[in-house]
TrEMBL record, chain A:
GO terms for biological process: mRNA export from nucleus; mRNA processing. Component of the THO subcomplex of the TREX complex which is thought to couple mRNA transcription, processing and nuclear export, and which specifically associates with spliced mRNA and not with unspliced pre-mRNA. Required for efficient export of polyadenylated RNA. Plays a key structural role in the oligomerization of the THO-DDX39B complex. Residues 184-203 are annotated as: Disordered. It comes from Nannospalax galili. Keywords: Coiled coil, Nucleus. The lineage of its organism: Eukaryota, Metazoa, Chordata, Craniata, Vertebrata. GO terms for cellular component: THO complex part of transcription export complex. This is THO complex subunit 7 homolog. Pfam families: THOC7 (PF05615). Belongs to the THOC7 family.
From TrEMBL, chain B:
This is THO complex subunit 6 homolog. The lineage of its organism: Eukaryota, Metazoa, Chordata, Craniata, Vertebrata. One of its GO terms (cellular component) is transcription export complex. Keywords: Apoptosis, Developmental protein, mRNA processing, mRNA splicing, mRNA transport, Nucleus, Phosphoprotein, Repeat, RNA-binding, Transport, WD repeat. The gene is Thoc6. WD repeats lie at residues 140-181. It comes from Nannospalax galili (Northern Israeli blind subterranean mole rat). One of its GO terms (biological process) is mRNA export from nucleus. One of its GO terms (molecular function) is RNA binding. SMART domains: WD40. Component of the THO subcomplex, which is composed of THOC1, THOC2, THOC3, THOC5, THOC6 and THOC7. The THO subcomplex interacts with DDX39B to form the THO-DDX39B complex which multimerizes into a 28-subunit tetrameric assembly. Component of the transcription/export (TREX) complex at least composed of ALYREF/THOC4, DDX39B, SARNP/CIP29, CHTOP and the THO subcomplex; in the complex interacts with THOC5; together with THOC5 and THOC7, plays a key structural role in the oligomerization of the THO-DDX39B complex. TREX seems to have a dynamic structure involving ATP-dependent remodeling. InterPro entries: THOC6 (IPR042626), WD40/YVTN_repeat-like_dom_sf (IPR015943), WD40_repeat_CS (IPR019775), WD40_repeat_dom_sf (IPR036322), WD40_rpt (IPR001680). Component of the THO subcomplex of the TREX complex which is thought to couple mRNA transcription, processing and nuclear export, and which specifically associates with spliced mRNA and not with unspliced pre-mRNA. Plays a key structural role in the oligomerization of the THO-DDX39B complex. Belongs to the WD repeat THOC6 family. SUPFAM superfamilies: WD40 repeat-like.
């Protein structure tokens, strides 16, 4: 049946995968052994024996090669296992480093933010004049104010004095005017009385 | 179609996207990123109708998906959604001053320390809702026009809100008062009157804040209320976020822009939509293999950037 053919082919491939004819050789060995047992002459027997020995050594050589390849494969596997574990470790290490770096990035971003906030405020503060300057200006202005108010006071005092003096002058003038007017009036009355007495002399 | 909002599941393996038809689609990031991903992995594993109007904003807690749009906020269980059971767990409406028109909710913000949710939108107020009881605890008033975006300043804790009135307001949650106001359009370094004064996007890093929209995208130092860096891009930006030492922004134009705090443009990565409205960075610790940046906007596609430098592929509604 088809299935068993499949199995047969599979088994033959497994046994004789590299196609060096080991399977055929072993079959041939069995046939030559039988031939050798049935050999007639000494020469034929001896040559058959030689042939068998050579076939055997070929088989042994082939087996030796296969064993070496098998050993090599085992050691190769071990090597790959080792490399695989190493790579896993370095992946884990890289993950940790990434997490650490992410934390550092966050920290750096925080620092940058703080710095920028500081800069923003500093810019605004720069626009305002320096405190020392302003205080000095205030002091100078204060002194000027004091000085000016002194001047104002002295001017006002002078004004007051002048006003008083003028007042005295004016009142004196006024008094004098009054006195002169009174004198004039008196002399008018006296004159008038004199003319009446002259016009009408009584005996 | 326009995709307005995104949210990553608590396990980090799924992404929810909300569009202008009121639908929410759930994509499996782990399936789309795996080596055996096929075309179907880039389609939603489930799509359901969530709101009557566009889904403007979504956030996720450790078990729920919260979505908001047409004046209501709804809660969904992630575990249920992933099993394709898409029924809302609850819906709440903040106390509006007028009951005639219901203003839309543009932004949601989770306050994990208080287990509360902040909602803000068309009625110009920030409403705070306790997630356990569902009651609305405070209403913060101060904006004179509707609010576009919210951000949480964790250290203080304070909430920042930006809106159409051009101001970014900082609110202290404990005293429920406005503690700082930055009127961006009044600063000539960044104001662009031809674009308007609206603040479309906001992000904060405790000491710093970046905002943009009508005015140019600008980095502010909060304590001194000074603008320190103006980013040189003309297109108004609609979403901005801090990431490591960069600022990522997107808006008009198909690019995701990577900025350094010094103002330099480090990279401009093109996406597949003509304009982008939302960026989402999946930083859920449970799924480091799904750590991607996703971008969505004026199209039915959600771009996935596995390495921030290029668009790997797109998911599609």
């Amino acid at each position: 049946t088809g299935l068993s053919d499949h199995e047969v082919i599979r088994k033959r491939l497994l046994i004789d995968g590299d196609g060096a004819g080991d399977d055929r050789r072993i079959n041939l060995l069995v046939k030559s052994f039988i031939k050798w047992c049935n050999s007639g002459s000494q020469e034929e027997g001896y040559s058959q024996y030689q042939r068998m020995l050579s076939t055997l050594s070929q088989c042994e050589f082939s087996m030796g090669k296969t064993l070496l390849v098998y050993d090599m494969n085992l050691r190769e596997m071990e090597n790959y296992e080792k490399i695989y574990k190493e790579i896993e470790c370095s992946i884990a290490g890289a993950h940790e480093k990434i997490a650490e770096c992410k934390k550092q990035i966050l920290q750096a971003k925080r620092i940058r933010k703080n710095r920028q906030e500081y800069d923003a405020l500093a810019k605004v503060i720069q626009h305002h004049p320096d405190r020392h300057e302003t205080l000095k200006e205030l002091e100078a202005l204060g002194k000027e104010l004091e000085h000016l108010s002194h001047i104002k006071e002295s001017v006002e005092d002078k004004l007051e004095l002048r006003r008083k003096q003028f007042h005295v002058l004016l009142s004196t003038i006024h008094e004098l005017q009054q006195t002169l007017e009174n004198d004039e009036k008196l002399s008018e009355v006296e004159d008038a009385q004199e003319t009446i007495m002259e016009a009408d002399p009584k005996p | 179609m326009t995709v307005f909002s995104q949210s990553v599941s608590p396990c980090g393996k799924f992404l929810a996207a909300g569009n202008n038809y009121g639908q929410i689609a759930i994509f499996s990031l782990s399936a789309a990123l795996s080596s055996e991903a096929k075309e179907e992995s880039k389609k939603p594993m489930v799509t359901f109708h969530a709101h009557d109007g566009p889904v403007y904003s979504m956030v996720s807690t450790d078990r729920h998906l919260l979505s908001a749009g047409d004046g209501e906020v709804k809660g969904w269980l992630w575990a249920e959604i992933l099993k394709k059971g898409c029924k809302e767990l609850w819906r709440r409406q903040p106390p509006y001053r007028t009951s005639l028109e219901v203003p839309e909710i543009n932004a949601l913000l989770l306050i994990p320390k208080e287990n509360s949710l902040i909602l803000a939108g068309g009625d110009c107020q920030l409403h705070s809702m306790d997630l356990e009881t569902g009651t609305f605890t405070r209403a913060l008033r101060g904006h004179t026009d509707y609010i576009h975006c919210l951000a949480l300043r964790e250290r203080s804790p304070e909430v920042l809100s930006g809106g159409e009135d051009g101001a970014v307001r900082l609110w202290d949650l404990r005293t429920a008062k406005e503690v700082q106001t930055i009127e961006v359009y009044k600063h000539e370094e960044c104001s662009r009157p031809h674009n308007g004064r609206w603040i479309g996007c906001l992000a904060t890093d405790s000491d710093w804040m970046v905002c943009g929209g009508g005015p140019a995208l600008t980095l502010w130092h909060l304590r001194s209320s000074t603008p320190t860096t103006v980013f040189p891009i003309r297109a108004p930006q609609k979403h901005v976020t801090f990431y490591q030492d960069l600022i990522l922004s997107a808006g008009q134009g198909c690019y995701v822009n990577h900025w350094q705090l010094s103002g330099e443009l480090k990279a401009q990565v093109p996406g597949s939509s003509p304009g982008l409205l939302s960026l989402s960075l999946n930083q859920q610790p449970a799924a480091p293999e799904c750590k991607v940046l996703t971008a969505a906007g004026n199209s039915c596609r959600v771009d996935v950037f596995t390495n921030l430098g290029y668009r790997a592929f797109s998911l599609s509604f």
